[in-house]
Amino acid sequence: MDIVTFTVGDIRMGVPFPRLALSVMVSESRMVIDDAGKGTVDATVQVTDLRRKFGFATLSRQQAARVITIEKDGHLTGLVINRSSPVMIVRDAEVNPLTGTDSPFVTGTVTVDGEPVFLFDWDALLAFDEPLDINALFNEPMAEWEGSAESQFLETIVREAVQFVEQDHTSDVIAALADESKFVIAAVMPAVGASIGPEFGMGSGSDMSGQLVNGLKKAGFDMVFNAGFGHDMAAMETAFELRQRLVSGENLPLIISSCPSLVKQVEHLHPDLIPNLSVNRSPSQMFGRILKTYYAEHLGRSPTDITVVQITPCLSSKSERTRHDLDGVDISVTTREVVRLLRTAGDYELQDLEEMAFDSPFDEATGAGILSDVSGGTVQAILRTVGELMTGADIGEASCEGICGTDAVREAEIRVADTTLRVAVAHDLGHGNRVLKRVKDDTTPYHLVEIMACSGGCA
After folding, report:
1. Which of the residues 134, 265, 332, 442 could staple to 310 if both were Cys, CB 3.0 to 4.6 A apart?
2. Domain 170-452, architecture per CATH
C-alpha cells in the first residue's frame, strides 16, 4: 500500500495515500483550536490539531503549521501536524497488525527508514473528542511490549533522526558544488547503487553504481568513492579492538558502533553499557576523516576546503553528522535526495549514462565490506578478521553460517582457534533492545553484539 508518513511531536504516523487530498502550510493566526484539538481554519474548514490531541501543547503555536486533509465519511477533514513525507510504498507483509484488544485506535505498525510508524484507525481516532496520551493508546503496559514496534518507539531514542525526516540537504550539496574554493567528494554507500534503480525505471536490485558515478561527476563532484572501503576499515579496527578485549577480559561484550541509531539507543537508554560500545567511529565517519586528511595533504589544502558528501539510505546519519565529536562528513543525503539532485542537475536520464568506475585509491571494497550493509555482515567481517589475527588463516564463511539469515535475533557460537566466541545479531531496535537487556541482566555471556536499527540492515 502507499502511505504518507508525518510527525507530531515525537510520534511518526502514517495515513494511506488514497485518503490524502491536500498538504499545505497554514498560518496559525487563521486557526481557532480548542484544548482537545478540535477547531477550524478560516472558520470554515474543520481540523483536528494532532499536536494538542496527543498532548504536545508546547508545539501548538508556530508562525505556520502544516495541514493535511484526509477523506472521512465522504468529507474532507484537516489534520494539523509538524512535518510530512513523500509518498512511500509499504508492503502489506511489512505491517505488524494490531487488534482492537491491543489498541482502540492503532491498527498496525510498520518500520520506515528505521523508525516505527503508527497506522491509525483514523475514523475512530477523529471521532474521539477527548485529548489522548500516547501511553493511553494501548491497553497493555508498554514495558510488556518488548521487541514490538510500539516498544521501539517508546524504548529507543531516534529523535535526532526523526527531526531530520523532512530536512532536505540537496541545496547544501548544490551550494558546495558551486563553491570554487571547495573540493567536493561523494562517498556512496554500497546499498545506494542497488536501491536507486526503481527511481529511474530499472528493476529492483539493479546495480546502477557505475551510472551513479557518472551522474555525480556530471553534477560537479570532483571525486566519487565507494564507501564500502570504510566498512572494511571499520571491520579491521573493530577486530583489533575485539582481540584486545578478549585478552583483557574487560568491557565484554563488544557492541559494534556502526549504526548511529543503536549508539543513540545505548547512550540514552542503557548508559551503563556505553563502555561496551566500540570506540571506533562509524564506517562513514571513519572513511570521511580519511578522505579529508588524505586529500588535504595531497592537494596542499586545509581539511576545511574538503567537503565530504555522504550518500546513504540511512536517515540517522544526518543526526550523526551534527555530533560535535564527529567531523568526517560535512553533508549527508539520502538516496531519495540524490535522485532529486541528479534530476535537477541535467537533462539526462541516469540509466542512459555510460558506467564509470569509482575513483582510486579506495576504489576497491571486499565482499565483506559490501555485505556490511546487511544484518550480520559486519559481524562476519569482524570474526573473519579476528580469525586471521589469532590463527593466521581465514576461518571461512562456513564458520559464520549461524549468524546469517533473516530472523530478527540470531545467536551463534563461532570457534576461533582455541576460543569459542558467543555472538548475537539483531535487526530493528525493538529486538535489539531485547539483546541489550540480556547483556545487562548477564543472562547470556556474549563476546560480540551487532544491532542494526533497520529491518534487514542498511538497505
Report:
1. 332
2. 3-Layer(aba) Sandwich (3.40)
